[in-house]
């Protein structure tokens, strides 16, 4: 009996994961559509992705990354 219960529980987990994967794909499609819409309006999608990535970072982490980038750019004569 416990084997049957374990199999049912496993099946339910798998089905939940499958539903979430479908939702994740739909969400990714929606995000791609927004970037395409922004690009059609004249915005640079690559730059927008960088901004989104930066906004996810904590302020101190972002500042450290920007300082390190500035240091590297200066060392290579890009600043």
Describe what you observe in this structure.
With 79 residues, this protein is mainly alpha-helical. Helix content is 87%, strand content 0%. The longest helix has 40 residues, at 2-41. The N and C termini lie far apart (70 Å).
Determine Rg (CA atoms, Å): 22 Å
Low-confidence stretches: none
What is the number of strand segments? Answer: 0
| Strand residue percentage | under 5%
Sheet having the most strands: none
What order do the helices and strands follow?
HHH
- Mean of all residue-level pLDDT scores: 95
CA-to-CA gap between the ends?
70 Å
The outline comes out as elongated
Estimate percent helicity: over 70%
Classify the secondary structure makeup into a structural class. mainly alpha
Work out the helix count: 3
Features of this protein?
single chain, 79 residues, mainly alpha, 3 helices, 87% helix, elongated
Draw up the topology in text.
Blueprint: H1 2-41, H2 45-56, H3 59-75
Please summarize what this structure is.
By secondary structure, the protein is mainly α. The longest helix has 40 residues, at 2-41. 87% of the residues lie in helices and 0% in strands.
């Amino acid at each position: 009996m416990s084997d049957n219960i374990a199999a049912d529980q496993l099946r339910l987990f798998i089905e939940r994961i499958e539903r979430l994967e479908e939702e994740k794909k739909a969400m990714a499609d929606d995000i791609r559509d927004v970037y395409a819409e922004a690009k059609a309006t004249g915005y640079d999608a690559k730059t927008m992705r960088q901004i989104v990535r930066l906004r996810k970072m904590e302020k101190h982490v972002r500042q450290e990354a920007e300082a390190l980038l500035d240091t590297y750019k200066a060392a290579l004569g890009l600043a």
